[in-house]
Amino acid sequence: MARRIIAVDVGNSQIAIGLYMGKVRSRFFRIRSDPTETADEFSLTFQQLLFAAGVKADEVEGAIVASVVPPLTETVGGCLEEMKTLRHVLHAAY
Predict the structure, then answer these.
(1) What are the structural domain ranges in the chain?
(2) How many CB atoms lie within 10 A of CB 39?
C-alpha cells in the first residue's frame, strides 16, 4: 500500500495542504495563515481536514512542512508532531 503523506506549504497569507497517497495528490486544501493561531487550533483544523478527506490520522505516515513564515514553522510543525501516528515530520524554511 502506498504511503500517505501530508505536505504543508506555509505562506504569508495562506497555508496550502496536500494529502498524498504515494506520489499522487489525493486532496488539496487552503487555509488562512494566522501567526496568532495556536498549535491546538491548527491541530483541530488538520484533524477536521483529514476527516473531510475520509482519512484517519493513523493512516498518515509523515508530513513535510515548508515555510516562509518563521513564527508559523514551529507552530504548524509542532502540531503535526503531536499527531502520534506520524513517524516523520520534516521542517524546512526557504
Answers:
(1) 4-93
(2) 16
Q: With 0-12 CB in 10 A as exposed, 13-18 as middle and 19+ as buried, what is 65?
A: buried
> Quick check: 63 and 88 in contact, CB under 8 A?
yes
Cα–chain-centroid distance for residue 50?
10
What's the CA gap between 1 and 78, in Å, rounded?
A: 27
CATH class of 4-93: alpha beta
Amino acid at 30: R
pTM metric for this prediction: 0.86
| pLDDT for residue 51 is more than 90 | yes
